[in-house]
Amino acid sequence: MPTHPETRPDNHEREALSQAASRGDGDAGFRLAVLCLTGQGGERDLSGARRALARARDAGHADAALMEVALVANGSGGAPDWREALSLLRRAAVTDATAAGHLALIEAMNIDADGMPRSLPALNPLSEAPRVGIAHGFLSPAEARHIVHAAADLLEPATVVDPRTGGLIAHPIRTSRNATIGPTRESLPIRAILNRIARLSGTDVQHGEPLTLLEYRPGQEYRPHHDALPGMVNQRVATMLLYLNQGYQGGQTHFTRPGLTVAGRGGDALLFLNTRPDGRPDPDAEHAGRPVTAGQKLLATRWIRAEPVDPWTMGGA
Questions:
Q1: CB 140 within 8 A of CB 134
Q2: Is the pTM of this model over 0.85?
Q3: Which of 81, 107, 133 is the C-terminal boundary of a domain?
Q4: pLDDT tens per residue, range 217-247
Q5: Who's near 258: CB < 8 A, 6+ residues apart?
Q6: What is the rounded CA–CA span in Å between residue 185 and residue 150?
């Protein structure tokens, strides 16, 4: 006889963890939050995860405190609330060195009370067909390092979208490694950077796919391709590339149709449009990441859609 969902062992685990968390067990609260976020033992429950993280944070669980900051800032399980997230980070920073580092990075940013940039570097046009522009000094060295540290432990062989199924598959067109910075890893500094990307690109922060860290080592490349996806209803209308380091050789970003080659420096941001004004993919936006010949190239990419996206359905937590 099949087991009813409400009596499955995993559901009993959630209940047991909830009871332990209510007694002040921070590890239990954090474990319960993870189950709620991943959907183990029942439905995915983002608001339940937020409640569990708050209990764990009150019990002194440092990782739970940082994860709660991320979810409050990006609106997972509730409305996005930068001010509340900043308040939580300040509280965590009193006793946790990692939180203190995040706070110091935030306090060095030129942002307003809602985490939005007060000013932006100029976007210098490089091409009209396709539309390409570069902003020098978009990231500070500390911000670039923070992005790398947020996902370096997740790096794995990169994949591409299968046009037949929409799933991710390995393909020789792309030989780098990548890692998705999902909602639970969107620290407050990263959220501020995403706000900056949205403002520079003239888009809403909720339209962006999760930030993705890319690593290229000697011989690795991304052959000519389009970021717009065939038959996609909610199309990738723009791409922002963030150059996170320098000191490597090769690895230029090359746009094949106009013959434009860009060798970004660490901290630069490259913005280009993937679609034409009518929303159709722009064939002129074909581009490639040329092979790295020496050293290690680190990038982050933010694909921006025409409409809001749910980051919880896009891989990476």
A1: no
A2: yes
A3: 107
A4: 999 999 999 999 988 999 999 999 999 999 9
A5: 127, 129, 130, 284
A6: 7
